[in-house]
Design goal:
By secondary structure, the protein is α/β, with parallel strands linked by helices. It contains eleven helices and 16 strands. It is globular.
Length: about 475
């Protein structure tokens, strides 16, 4: 099958607010994060809603351009967490829908709210976090059984037909069907665009909706296989842009289907609407937390009708970060849900990827609104052929090539592919820089290059320079 007619997507059947009380509140509420945020101080409000609708389950045979519908009209329930300016006049028209990460077994916002929340608050953007997996639904139900009683992704197949679930990213429950998330993601955009009174954005002027996430290939699969099949009532695209962070090949289309391999040609996809895919060093090859071989999915950037892509590869940046962890649900609430609290990301120093993610968000908005395409990223440099590919290294051991901020151009640390960093020995730093002035001048030049290249924003360039001023440089 080379083409499938687009399906008009309607909003979910209902969107009911889960009212906050003294005894019942959203898991992941802004004031219940590891580092709480008082949204009122920024003129923002937060509400949680329960979505209920029906969705299809898809299958995607090998060498087929688009998926097929396997099972039609399966009832589902999920939740969304909405943060937006309280006054519609303060809203800039951009909604970010973030597919929440589930690797910790509870919902986490990573590239969106986790790293870019300050940008959203400053610009008057709105954020919607959506639960997309059964494993986090189970945690929500343990956290507050009454509040979350209606959320579910039930498996519509009879037990004898369910088979063994794929377990590559936590799909381990035969009674559930995570494949219901695809239509739900489209229906959510249709709801935000609608004039229905239960629309969380009723009375707000919507200009564009972008989707983001770091979810083990889920957003990649949605962009490559589902989004091209769907349209809104006016035949327009369901989403106006995508920002995918980390991982490579698309994930599992349904509960039993395996994740795509790095050799699957469907992994070399483009998007109908602007797409920026940002990759860390830990995503590129075959080891570590993300052994996805994203290196194998390289294809040329594109900016032509129906074919959009910018692929960023970041020199030195590892997979895990403590910064976004502080924007995730607090330990008390995790333990209340009888989930495992993982305080494993506590680095002395880490690559501040938030600067690139914020600049990429602004670049995506310009691409969506004005057709101004983002810059082309240099590629990380490698040697040897697949599956023996290795990174080339610079003089201090950091990955060579890629987008290079002062952290790797003017290094004080050796960055790990999995996350975190170790400070270089004083004698090596002394060999690299004559003194503090020499170090700062080099940082300033590199920062200006990054700013001109559109890899960072002006406000973050100032932060980088202030960091450099406070660094210790041995005599």
């Amino acid at each position: 099958m080379s083409h499938m007619p687009k399906i008009k997507i309607d909003p979910p059947e209902s969107c009911k607010e889960a009212v906050r009380t003294k005894t019942s509140y959203p898991m992941s509420a802004a004031d219940r994060l590891v580092k709480p945020i008082c949204l009122e101080d920024y003129g923002f409000i937060e509400h949680e809603y329960i979505l209920k609708g029906s969705a299809n389950v898809y299958e995607w045979p090998l060498r087929q351009k688009y998926p097929n519908v396997r099972t039609e009209g399966v009832p589902y329930g999920s939740r969304i967490l909405v943060r937006k300016p309280k006054d519609p006049k303060d809203f800039n028209g951009i909604v970010v829908v973030e597919l929440l990460n589930y690797a910790s077994q509870y919902d986490r916002a990573i590239p969106g709210w986790g790293h870019c929340f300050e940008y959203y608050l400053d610009k008057g953007m709105a954020w919607v976090g959506v639960t997309i997996r059964d494993v986090t639904m189970d945690v929500l139900k343990r956290f507050d059984p009454e509040r979350y009683q209606e959320i579910d992704f039930p498996n519509p197949l009879p037990p004898e037909r369910r088979g063994k679930p794929d377990d590559s990213y936590g799909n381990a429950n035969q009674d559930k069907e995570n494949g219901l998330r695809w239509d739900m993601i489209s229906q959510l955009s249709a709801l935000i665009h609608s004039s229905r009174y239960d629309n969380p954005f009723y009375g707000y002027e919507i200009k564009q909706i972008m989707a983001t996430g770091a979810t083990g290939g889920d957003l990649s699969l949605y962009v490559s296989g589902i989004h091209p099949l769907h349209c809104l009532e006016n035949k327009s695209s369901v989403y106006d842009g995508f920002l995918i962070y980390m991982t490579g090949a698309p994930g599992s289309i349904n509960q039993m289907a395996p994740k795509m391999t790095e050799l699957d040609e469907r992994a070399k996809y483009y998007s109908e609407v602007p797409l920026i895919h940002i990759l860390t060093t830990g995503d590129m090859l075959g080891g570590g937390f993300h052994p996805d071989w994203s290196y194998m999915q390289r294809r040329p950037d594109a900016d032509e009708p129906g074919k959009k892509l910018r692929r960023y590869e970041i020199g030195g940046c590892g997979v895990r970060a403590a910064f976004d962890k502080k924007r995730c649900v607090c330990q008390e609430d995790v333990e209340r849900a009888k989930a495992l609290w993982k305080e494993s990301v506590n680095y002395e120093y880490e690559y501040p990827v938030r600067y690139i993610l914020r600049a990429a968000t602004e670049a995506l908005i310009l691409w969506m609104q004005k057709g101004i395409a983002p810059p082309h990223s240099p590629l990380l440099e490698t040697e040897k052929e697949y599956p023996d590919t290795e990174f080339k290294r610079d003089e201090v051991g950091n990955t060579a090539g890629g987008i290079r901020l002062p952290y790797v151009d003017v290094p004080l640390y050796r960055y790990h592919e999995e996350g975190g960093a170790v400070r270089l020995p004083d004698e090596m730093i002394h060999r690299l820089y004559k003194d503090k002035n020499d170090y700062f001048e080099k940082v300033a030049v590199s920062t200006l290059d990054a700013l001109e290249g559109r890899w960072i924003l002006k406000e973050d360039a100032v932060k980088i320079l202030l960091e450099a001023l406070n660094e210790r440089i041995p005599d």
